[in-house]
Amino acid sequence: MFVCNSLNFLRIHSRKLLNSIPVRTYANSAGIVKSQCAIVFPGQGAQYVGMGKDLYENFASARHVFDEANEVLGFNLKGLIFNGTQSQLIQTENTQPAILTTSVAILRILESEYGFNIESACTFALGHSLGEYTALVATKALSLHDAIKLVRLRGESMTKTVSQLKVKTAMSALIVRQENLAEIEESIKGINSSLPEGELVELANVNSVSVAVISGTSNAVDFASGVLQSNHLAARALDLPVSAPFHCKLMQPAADMMRASLKNIKFNTPTIDVITNVTATPIKSSTEIPQLLEKQVTATVQWQKSIKYCKERDINTFIVIGPARVLANLLRKEYPLDRIRPLTTVKDIQLHSEELKIKQLNTL
Prior knowledge:
GO terms for molecular function: [acyl-carrier-protein] S-malonyltransferase activity. By secondary structure, this protein is α/β, with parallel strands linked by helices. It is built from 16 helices and eleven strands. A five-stranded parallel beta sheet has the order 9-4-3-10-11, with helices on both faces. The protein has a four-stranded antiparallel beta sheet with strand order 6-7-5-8. Strands 1-2 form a two-stranded antiparallel ribbon. A hairpin with a 4-residue loop joins strand 6 (201-206) and strand 7. Helix 3 crosses helix 9, helix 6 (92-114) packs antiparallel against helix 9 (144-164) and helix 12 (252-263) runs antiparallel to helix 13. Residues 1-33 and 358-364 have low confidence and may be disordered.
């Protein structure tokens, strides 16, 4: 009851307080006024049992999202997220719809309870791997119903692909220096071309100027990690506890399984620019979205370049919506002077909703 009363008080008074908060804006080449803000959504690795439970208990808008996910999937995803086991939740076919559902629930609370409007508040939307689907939902390019179906299929396709692989696979995070990123990419290509048949290593993610991830067969990943450290291109290599070699060619069967379903989904033009993982630039039209999502399964997640794209266009505020704070911590480390606003819990929403409720922007 105390939480509910506090939230009611906040809803009433945040509207009054918002009007006194200055909003920084800029005009793009078309003369359209936008805020210097991007909205960001996490991917796999952000999950934990109990995420979103406080949202469900306090907001009807969040309950609608979790209940819709249950209905679409035909099983109790909500129960698995709130009260399941970690071993159940980390199965990728469960992880992916769980993270998307929780992230969208937070967004719906901001929209329905606090008047948050992504079109006037943000210039760009982007999501890390799975999070790109959430970004498409947030920008009305994809319905929540279709997104839940697609990410469940994405997870199932990845699980099936891994079960059919006849080699051990691995992923490893590399701690690197910014000046070595380009050389690492070329080195991995060279290493891969020298491997015996059946072995593979590729650059899976470039998450920041200091963190990259490689993916492939276990022997190839171990060999590449050793070579990169010997050549002083990577300071350390840390094995990741993952169930699949994500974002490399070994996942091509999963991409193939996604292709037909993606073609049958209706995509709309995003209401604001969505920066895609594959190109680190905004999606140009709704017709290219299916192909980009298919490519994303095997392609490098160009996260560092995506954030750099934002920074080159004067973005200095990042709203990070979803479970855990991995992306927020990456951003804070790389851009310590920027405003990073992670929204994961009811407490976070209480803390930041006033400054994020940007319903009307000042005009030039």
